[in-house]
Each structure stands twice: as structure tokens, then as C-alpha cells.
């Protein structure tokens, strides 16, 4: 059983975040270049959307 679920969640995020640079580094670099050229408001909207989706998912798996 997992003693510290928050640490497990952070570890899973690290695994998922590392997949693309490991599998396709050129694609990852191009994506970062595109992100750097985006307007701040679009990045904020994306970030807010991801946080809401994560919160809904977290709430769903807790019930």
C-alpha cells in the first residue's frame, strides 16, 4: 500500500513529464519553442484548464 499518496502522485507526474523528452526530444524542443511564442493569456487559460481538469479528476477518484 502507498504510505504517502502525494509523493506517489508527484512521482507519476515526473514519469509522465519525462516520457516525451525521452521518446521524442526533437518534438519536445519544438513544442517548447511554440510555447515560448504563445501569449501569456493563452498559457494562463491552458494552465487553468489543466488545474480544473485535475481537480475534477481528483474529486472523481476520491468518491
Automatic annotation (TrEMBL):
Keyword field contains Ion transport: no
Keywords: Membrane, Transmembrane, Transmembrane helix
Transmembrane region(s): 6-24, 45-62
Name the record gives this protein: DUF2065 domain-containing protein
